[in-house]
Each structure stands twice: as C-alpha cells, then as structure tokens.
Amino acid sequence: MLEVKGLKLRLNGKPVINGLNLEVKKGRIHGLLGVNGTGKTTLANLLMGIGYPDEGSIIFEGRDITKCTISERARMGITLAWQEPARFEGLSIKEYLKLSRNLDSNESESYLWMVGLSPAEYLNRAVDVSLSGGERKRVELASVLAMKPKLAILDEPDSGIDVISLPHIMNGIVEMSKQGSAVLLITHSETGIEIANRVSVMCAGKIINTGAPEEMCQWFKDNCRTCDHIGEPAHEGA
Amino acid sequence: MIVVNEYEALLEAYGKAGGSLDALRSKEVGNLVIHKNRVLSANEVKGIKVETEETETGVNIYFLVEEGAKIKYPVHLCFGVLPKEGLQEITLKVEAQADSEVTVIAHCIFPNAINVIHKMDADIKIGNNAKFCYQETHYHGESGGVKVIPKAKIRVGKKGIWQSTFTLIEGCVGMLDYDFEIFGEEKSINELLVKVFGKKEDDIKIVEKIHLDGREARGLAKSRLVLNDNAKAVVMGETYGNAPFARGHVDCIEIVNGEGVIARAIPVVYVSDKQAKVTHEAAIGSIDKKQMQTLMARGLNEEEAVDVIVKGILR
Ligand SMILES: Nc1ncnc2c1ncn2[C@@H]1O[C@H](COP(=O)(O)OP(=O)(O)O)[C@@H](O)[C@H]1O
Ligand SMILES: [Mg+2]
C-alpha cells in the first residue's frame, strides 16, 4: 500500500535521506529499526508531508502523493504519531480524540481503554503540559486509533516511556493492526519490535536490510550497534 | 413604558450574548441590570445588599456580601449600552465580609456601538477567609467602536480568595484599557486572568498587578491573547513578593496571527523578601508549527487547525 522509491533529502547540505526504498503492505506492522540520527524522524515527516524530498517518490495505494499536503494525506488515511507529541492548552482529550471523525462516547472510551487510560479520569483532562510524557504518548496513540487510519506512522512510540506505560503502548499498536491499519513502527531499539510482521533496518538515510523480525534484530545487533556510518554512505553491498 | 422596552431590548441582547435569562428572571438569583445610567432591575437575595444611585453618566453601586453568607447561586450583573453612542460610567464599591462566599457573573453588552465608552472604577474589599469569584464577559459588535476602561483596586484579607476572569472574545475589542491591582494579605489567593481576541484595528492594554504583602500569599497574573489583522496589544503582568513565602507567577501567551499585529509583554517580577519567590513565563509568537502539523495529520485543514488552537487558548 505504501511504496517509497529513491527518496533523497539534503538538510544543510548534508544527505539525511539518501536514496531510500521501502514497501509497507496493507494491514501489516512494519518495523523500522535504526540507531539515533539515522534519519528515521526525517523519513516519517516526509511520508506525512511535513517537508518534501529533493528526489524520489512516495506512492500510496497506487497514487503518487509525493507533492500532497499533510491534510490531503491525512484524508487519504495516513497519519503520524510524533516522537514528542505537541501539547494543546484548553483542548480536552475527549475533543482531541474526535478531531478526525465524530465518535460517540462509548467509542472514545474504548480507545482510551486500549492504551490503558481510564476514561473517567482522563476524558476531560486537557492535552496540555499537565500530562506526563508517557500519558501524552498514550493519548497520541489513542487518537491515532480513533482515526482508524489505513497507515499509521508511529515515530518511536516506546521512547521516553515509563515501564507502566510501555505494555499499554504495545497493546495499542496491536489493536491498531487488528483494526486493519498498516503500521510503520519506527524504533531505535530491538525491544518491542517482535510485534512486527516484517522489519527493515535503516542506516545513514537508507534501508539496508529487510526480513523477519528475529533475523533483522540479530543482524542489527551484529552490524549497526558498532557501525559509525551516521552521516556517511551506508553499508556497502548489504 | 420606555423602561420596559429598554429592559426587553437589553434582555434580548443579553440572551443572544449567551447570558442566562432564567437567572435574571428568577427570584432566587441575585441580579442587577443596568442600561446606560438606568437601573432596570435589581434583585437582592439573602446575604447580599445592593444599593444603586443613578448619576448623569452612569450608576454608583454599593455591593455588600454579609458576614458568613454563602451565596448559593451566582449573582448576575448586566451592563449594556444599546444605542450607537453613549457613555457609561460605573462606580463599584464591593465589600465581601469575613467568611462569605459568592460568584458574580457580569455581562457587558455593546452590540451596536459606533462610539461607546464603558468605564468601570471598582474598589473591592475581600474580608478575612472570604471567597469572591468574578467573571466578566464582554460582547461587542463588529465595528470596533467601543472604549472599555475597567479599573479595579482589590484588597484581599487573610486567607481570602479573589479569582477574576475578564473575557473579551466576541466581536471587536475596540480600545481596551484594563488595569486591575490587587493587594493580598497573609495566606490569601490572588488570581487575575484576562482572555482577549483582538482583531482589525483593536488597541489593547492590559495591566495586572499583584502585591503579595502577607506571609504565604499566592498570586497568579495570567493572560491569553490572540491577535489577528492589525491588532496591537501590550500586557503588563507585575507581581511583587513582599512577604516571607509569598509565591507569585506571571503567565502570558500572545499569539500573533496577523500581518499588522504588534504584541508586547512587559512582565515585572519583584521580590523584597528573601523568602518570597516570583516566576514568570511569556510566549509571544505565531501559532506553533508542530501543533498545526499535528492537527492537520488528523485531517483538519489549515483554517480549522488555527481555529482549534485559538479556541483552546482562549478557553
Ligand atoms: N532541520 C534539520 N536541519 C539540519 N539537519 C537536520 C534537520 N533535522 C534533522 N537533521 C539531521 O538529520 C539527521 C537525522 O535526524 P533524524 O531524522 O531526527 O534521525 P532519527 O530520527 O533517526 O534519530 C541527524 O543527523 C540530524 O542532525
Ligand atoms: Mg527520531
């Protein structure tokens, strides 16, 4: 459903996305594993329409969306959960969940339960600085669930998360997949990626290997943990 | 007859502006309705005494909350000028005696103003352990022909609580010169909040001054402004920590959402006791990009996203 071909982007003269190819299949959880600074967030942004690539194309359900705006992509069923989600003063969680479509209160409550937040306690709270980092990320996931997207791009949903929030986050992602959403699960660590159906390893702005989760985790440990290719051409011949 | 017509007309505007008509009609709810310099209706409830005196240009009001009285329903005030032109000067003397509790909701309505001046001079005394919540909401027309000049001096006694909200987000502001100054004694809570949506050629000046004069007094001077078109605003949030363990905070957000906007914030934090602490934060700038992108990633267009953010900030 998503096909990325030859994507390139330079920032401040430096190649950050460097000829990236990627395919995500319908209804699947696709893991994207890469060390910090390898360009994962930049890729997530390009897929959502936050910034445009210098070269290459992004095809979604057979349609070239490389030049589409954020709102246009969202209406096609693509959404993004940020690594550090924004805070909104005066906007309740209840309202936040309803941004993409109208939900009845049962539905709103069920999405909060999926990420382990009690509706009675949270629905009327604001999506502002009063939420902890973990709570905010769980709310973000609930709002992605509420949108029922065709493709959810999740940028490090597990980073900066407390041990209590983590299993709820993982549960939310599994629920997303059960709902029929494809998920691009971006992470810098192998923990938690076992819920993926397939995993791609990213290094220096490129996908350098794709395969089954266990195999890719091992490969990542053996090759990328010690690699210092950041900002340079990726592993040759991989 | 004229009075009745005037009253009905004002009530209609009041209802349209979101005021509670039931509250004005109920015998159990305290209210006071003033059009220009005429008192059109006044209803006292147990525990509250209201005296009024019509002057040439306005009304002098003496408002008393008796000692220990806990007023069940909010008291509703309505100040209006319906014609295009007019001057309304309100002098307000408030005394909330010890241990009393009341919420006052004021609606100020100038729907047709081309050249209307509304002045309020308030002298307010909150007794020991008394609690006074004051919410003033303005409804202006679209012409911007209103000058609003509310000034208040508020003295809050020991363990007293003052919480006020001034809201001007419907219609054009015109000119606003808001100046509230509050003096808090020991363990008092002193909170001033202003929410303004400036548009077109609006000219806005806001002064929130809090003196924390008693031990453990608390203060919050908060302001939220959204400025479109050519609106100009200056916010002066000042807090003076003058006693041990006094804690104050100045918190100002101004969103610049127009090409001709000029926004300024001048916070003053002053401490004259080494055990007092006053903090401030001020953020002036355009709407946060990441907030916009987040809402757009849920399918909102740019305009809808701005709307959600602005409404949230002014809520
Ligand atoms: N706006 C920018 N301007 C210049 N360099 C940037 C910008 N954004 C990211 N980078 C650089 O691009 C690289 C990849 O960043 P990022 O996509 O955030 O990586 P990751 O998410 O994998 O940690 C980093 O070296 C970062 O410093
Ligand atoms: Mg990142």
Q: What do you see in this structure?
A:
The complex is a heterodimer of chains A (238) and B (315). Chain A has a single domain, classed as 3-Layer(aba) Sandwich (Rossmann fold). Chain A is built from 8 helices and 10 strands. In chain A, the strands form 2 sheets. Chain A has a 6-stranded mixed beta sheet, sandwiched between helices. The radius of gyration of chain A is 18 Å and the shape is globular. By secondary structure, chain B is mainly beta. Chain B has one domain. Helix content of chain B is 13%, strand content 56%. Chain B is built from 4 helices and 20 strands. In chain B, strands 2-1-5-7-9-11-13-15-17-20 form a 10-stranded mixed beta sheet, with helices on one face. In chain B, strands 3, 4, 6, 8, 10, 12, 14, 16, 18 and 19 form a 10-stranded mixed beta sheet that branches. In chain B, a hairpin with a 3-residue loop joins strand 3 and strand 4. Classes of the chains: A alpha/beta (238), B mainly beta (315). The complex binds adenosine-5'-diphosphate and magnesium ion. Adenosine-5'-diphosphate (ADP) binds next to helix 1 of chain A.
Outline of the structure:
The complex is a heterodimer of chains A (238) and B (315). Chain A has eight helices and ten strands.
Output the number of helix runs of chain B: 4
Form type of chain A: globular
**What structural category characterises the helix and strand content of chain B?**
mainly beta
Question: Order of helices and strands of chain B, N to C?
Answer: HHEEEEEEEEEEEEEEEEEEEEHH
For the sheet with most strands of chain A, the description reads: 6 strands, mixed
How many helices of chain A? The count is 8
Quaternary structure classification: heterodimer
Number of domains as seen in the coordinates of chain A: 1
User: What's the level 1 CATH class of chain A?
Assistant: Alpha Beta
CATH topology of chain A: Rossmann fold
What number of domains of chain B? Answer: 1
Cα radius of gyration of chain A in angstroms: 18 Å
The helical percent of chain A reads: 25-40%
Bound molecules: adenosine-5'-diphosphate, magnesium ion
Unreliable runs of chain A: none
Q: Compute the average pLDDT of chain B.
A: 95
Beta-strand residue percentage of chain B? over 45%
Poorly predicted runs of chain B are none
Strand content of chain A: 25-35%
In total, the number of strands of chain A is 10
